[in-house]
Design goal:
The complex is a heterodimer of chains A (134) and B (149).
Chain A: H1 5-29, E1 45-54, E2 56-69, E3 75-78, E4 90-93, H2 98-130
Helix pairs in contact in A: 1-2
Chain B: H1 2-31, E1 41-42, H2 45-53, H3 57-60, E2 98-99, H4 114-147
Antiparallel strand pairs in B: 1-2
The chains are: A alpha+beta (134), B mainly alpha (149).
Chain lengths: 134, 149
């Protein structure tokens, strides 16, 4: 009962979206990262959201159930002068798609804002409830 | 005599509980807007109020005009209709909830329509505040009746 669990629900959503934003940040930071001598480059990561029940049937929070690596092939760029180029002159880079990541970032930030607004509204309503009868 | 004074207060208090419950539901829907496979939940306020007041109005409140489930989600005679029993807050405070229908089907099976949820959220918040004001008004009325001034 009561609206106090809104803070738990929206809080879990905010922390999940923040984690998503974190993953986007690390993807973007590594967008141009070059694979090391072992040929293993940075692979783009994605968070996977999952509903988690919070107390009653009516309140459903969110958690990050895992982080998946993209299975797309790593980018290969022809650049013979690069120190990490292989014998054919190709450099292996991460498979991050910056456009996808930007879209992901905007989506995460909007969801974050939505949940902040939900918490603010719930706070206002609870404060007014406290003043009942005065 | 006292029952006459407080019966309206009682009604508004129950309405407030249903509004708070619905606020919580919509908050959950907004929180899960990006969760794959999540199906939004909602309660029909009219029916939930009917159940809370313990009146017989609850059975016919599930008419086709019920806002949350216009057609049970069925499109064929042999489909099993979606559970659309709503908000029985009367007994243990845990309502039987309905599921929102997909307006724009998504690849991940999520049925939350953010525009609709935001609108419902604001609508519900305003109704909650209105109920609060009614309660405050009734309390003031009762007080001035008691004091006789």
């Amino acid at each position: 009962m009561s609206m106090f669990s809104i803070f738990n629900v929206s809080g879990s959503a905010i922390s999940s979206q923040a984690q998503r934003l974190n993953v986007v940040a690390s993807n973007l930071a590594n967008a141009d990262a070059v694979a090391g001598p072992d040929g293993k480059g940075y692979k783009a990561r994605q968070v996977v959201f999952e509903t988690v029940p919070m107390g009653s049937e009516a309140s459903a929070g969110v958690k990050v159930s895992g982080i998946q690596e993209s299975q797309e092939a790593l980018k290969r760029v022809f650049n013979p002068s690069h120190p990490s180029a292989d014998t054919d002159g190709y450099v292996t880079q991460s498979n991050v798609n910056p456009v996808e990541e930007m879209v992901n970032m905007i989506s995460a930030s909007r969801s974050y804002q939505n949940n902040v607004e939900v918490m603010n509204t719930a706070k206002t309503l609870l404060l007014k409830t406290l003043q009942m009868g005065q | 005599m006292i029952a006459n004074l407080t019966s309206e207060l009682d009604f508004q208090a129950k309405a407030l509980v249903v509004r708070a419950e619905r606020q919580r539901l919509i908050a959950s829907n907004i929180a899960n807007a990006d969760t794959p496979g999540y199906i939004g939940r909602d309660i029909d306020f009219k029916q939930a109020m009917g159940n809370a007041m313990g009146s017989a109005a609850s059975s016919n409140a599930l008419s086709p005009s019920a806002s949350t489930s216009p057609n049970d989600g069925t499109s064929h005679a042999r489909h099993i209709p979606l559970q659309s029993t709503l908000g029985s807050l009367s007994t243990d405070g845990s309502p039987a909830l309905a599921y929102t229908l997909q307006t724009q089907p998504a690849m991940d099976g999520n049925s939350v329509d953010m525009d609709r949820e935001r609108a419902s959220f604001v609508d519900n918040a305003i109704h909650y505040e209105a109920t609060l004001r009614f309660i405050n008004g009734s309390a003031k009325t009762i007080l001035s009746a008691i004091q006789g001034q």
